[in-house]
Amino acid sequence: MMIKKALLPILLSILVVPAFETSASAQTADEVVNKYLAALGGREALGKLTSRRAIGTITVSTPNGDLGGPLEIDSKAPNKVRVAMDLDLSALGVPDKMHNEQKFDGTSGWTLNSMQGDAEITGNQLDNMRNNVFPTPLLNYKTAGLTVELLPKETLNGKSVVVLRATPKAGSATKLYFDAETYLLVRTVATINSPQTGGDIEQTSDFSDYRAVDGIKIAFQVVNSNALQSAMIKLTKVEHNVALDDALFKAKSPAAR
Q: What is the mean pLDDT of residues 130-157?
């Protein structure tokens, strides 16, 4: 089905790439991590976060036109996450909207889709969800078994960036690019295994428009792209330490809408 081929890879990729964040311009990997955490708001402030609700919009670019709609992202420590969106399919000649939810309850992951049905997330994608620790996998990365190494500096969009590679025990290794002046994360690149695309695919995420919320820096714009398509996320509201029921992240319980 054309809609399935056009949408599923990028929608899945929103969650399956670990949300590793770090910082820049240091002599060792540990120093980079520490400077990044300080740039975000500091270890103490990050350690007080228990949950986050982010609301905004998503625009998925396809060969037949852009598909857009509202987006909600719920995160709860240690690694529970839910992403829900409603996409207007009129650009594809379809009058309906497609509701999509991706959920991980700490153990299992599911994609719930109003047009394509429900599917369990397994393998590499599930490993990446497990690694996506809130508020950042780098806060206590050593105890989590994550290996971080410093790579040679590079230039990105005309600016110097410091590069790290974060390698989990299981799941995708991720290259992280940090602005050498601000120590904020500007890009991640990871190879993920997606059955919907027939195997491995390289996923790039670009972060911009950082704003402080409760003293914590958050990228209000994220562009996820691969060889097939891209999706732009723009946040309009972020709240911390909101009450999120564990049932929200369970497999077969789509939120009321």
A: 95
Give per-residue pLDDT as tens, 115-140. Answer: 989 999 999 999 999 999 999 999 99
CA distance 191 to 128: 11
In tens, the pLDDT along 30-89 reads: 999 999 999 999 999 999 999 999 999 999 998 888 999 999 999 999 999 999 999 999
Taking the whole predicted model, whether its pTM rises above 0.85 is answered as yes
Tokens of 170: 């299981």
3-state secondary structure of 114: coil
Quote the CA–CA distance of 81 and 130 in Å, as a whole number. Answer: 10
Residue 56 near residue 233 (C-beta atoms within 8 A): yes
What is the rounded CA–CA span in Å between residue 86 and residue 177? 31
Walk me through the domains of the chain, giving residue ranges and CATH numbers: 2-240 (2.50.20.10)
Handedness of CA 228, 234, 239, 242 (dihedral sign): negative
Nearest Cα to 216, choosing from 184, 178, 172, 189?
184
Residue 99's beta-bridge partner residues? Answer: 86
Task: Name the β-bridge partners of 104.
Answer: 81, 109
- Residue 9: its pLDDT value, please? 47
